[in-house]
Design brief:
The structure is a single chain. The protein contains 3 helices and 2 strands, in the order βααβα. It is mainly alpha-helical. The chain has one domain. It has a two-stranded parallel sheet. It is rod-shaped. This is DUF4190 domain-containing protein. It comes from Phytohabitans rumicis.
Length: about 110
């Protein structure tokens, strides 16, 4: 028993990769690279918003928009960039607190002679 291949209607569009999936990946990569400098927050946020939009579009297209692997990779890179930015902020706060704690406070007057 053989099964016949699924025939597509001639007017059905060809499956194509979502352009937003490529943009999500690129923004995620930029977020990862600039995350330690805290500049990765903006591209990571944009990547996560675009990923949500691209998933909705891919779902509503009925399978004619592909690129889910690129979306997953881009989202992972964006989350990693956010994690690096958060880590950099925490490290900067800890260094600032330690520096503030070791700094002398007040004005130090020398001994006075009466």
């Amino acid at each position: 028993m053989t099964t016949s291949p699924v025939l597509r209607h001639p007017l059905d569009p060809e499956p194509v990769r979502s352009t937003k999936a490529g943009a999500v990946f690129a923004l995620g990569l930029v977020a990862l690279l600039t995350g330690p400098l805290v500049g990765g927050v903006v591209p990571a946020s944009i990547a996560l918003v675009l990923a949500t939009q691209a998933r909705r579009e891919a779902y509503s297209s009925g399978g004619y928009l592909t690129g889910s692997a690129w979306l997953r990779r881009g989202e992972r890179l964006a989350w990693a960039g956010l994690a690096l930015a958060a880590t950099a902020v925490v490290i900067a706060i800890v260094i600032g607190v330690v520096d503030f704690a070791t700094a002398p406070t007040g004005q130090d007057f020398g001994p006075t002679v009466d």
